[in-house]
UniProtKB/TrEMBL annotation:
UniProt-listed Enzyme Commission number(s): 6.1.1.3
Record keyword Nucleotide-binding present: yes
Pfam families: HGTP_anticodon, tRNA-synt_2b
Organism: Micromonospora siamensis
Family according to the record: Belongs to the class-II aminoacyl-tRNA synthetase family.
Keyword check for Zinc: yes
Domain Aminoacyl-transfer RNA synthetases class-II family profile per the UniProt entry, residue ranges: 29-297
Keywords (A to Z) from UniProt: Aminoacyl-tRNA synthetase, ATP-binding, Cytoplasm, Ligase, Metal-binding, Nucleotide-binding, Protein biosynthesis, Zinc
Protein name, as recorded: Threonine--tRNA ligase
Amino acid sequence: MIDHRRLGRELELFVSDPLVGAGLPIWLPAGAAARHAVEEYVRDLERRAGYRHVYSPPLGKRELFELSGHLGYFAADMFPPMRLSADDEFVLRPALCPHHALVFRARGRSYRELPLRIAEIGGMYRAERSGVLGGLSRVRAISLNDAHNFCALDQVGEEVREILRLIGEAHAALGVRPAGFRLSLRGPGEKYVGDDAQWARAEELLRAALDGVAYTEAPGEAAFYGPKIDIQVVDAAGRESTISTVQLDFDKPERFDLSYTAADGSRQRPVMVHRSLVGSMERLFAYLIEVHQGAFPVWYAPVQLVLLPVDDGQAAAAEALARRAGAAGLRVEVDHGGSLGARVRDAARRRIPYAGVIGAREAAAGAVALRLRDGRSLPPMPADEALALLDRMVTTHSAALLP
Ligand SMILES: [Zn+2]
């Protein structure tokens, strides 16, 4: 069976160490390179869609999480507070919403600024029991692709539809294949804030945004502050998890007393839409490693091109081409050691999309012969042409190795 933990070890993507602790993986250079490419892509996609990015610290004073409701409704999933002195206690945040509410509140807001979309790939912490932790799929330190879109009530429908469109675009680029959409609703019990009218209105808005989309309903899966649309994936072991989510929240704007000045000069309360296009980097990569069996699309492959001089006579030509490819933004290596056949096999084992073979004839002609990781080979081509081909596959976020 494909297991992201085994592939993560073999491909040197991440490692866990008992000295750090369970659920606290370290991203190794190859995994970090892939994640960095994905983070850049997501930030760029968001920026083009009108999001504004912030940085906020992954902890805050106890009072912040009392105000947000997390300590009242979510404490069982949080690390215990850290006490510096009798009146100075800090909490590792279990979500980014409280900090982003303070971004909205940092100054007066006008209706002209709405929807105000505050985004961050930010750190947060969950006190998961050690028995459920494994690789990247369940962790205690989480880097979430998150945003909070502050809207007027009549903007919510369009905003949610646009978020669903962005989620579809990101999934296509990454190779995420959703197993289904889920409308997560309130269940029985006292673990929810807000009144019935708020919940009914939020549910109605989400149902309207899902018009034309097939979805299932899941009572009891809502956030404590509101219903949500969850986009589910299934891992290699058949376990379902949420990778993307859109949540409506009338409660936090009240708790934080958020308001904006409407066109008629009155003070109005915004609605807060919590959304994640691709979820946490950890869960996303647990899924991507398995669904691609480690063979990521070219644009986020840790190494995109390895150059293989046939013998020492072509070493200088290979190094020169590697410098050009690196300057063009590609992640490139030169592999000098061992027989050519062994190096080609090693490149395929590492799921490197392209191996560029340079023999005496190619070196003399300024050419390279590409071998693809799926076993196909291309005839020698000018180095410029090869670099242009790779650039095209990267910039179009193609899932294929050839146009
Ligand atoms: Zn949130």
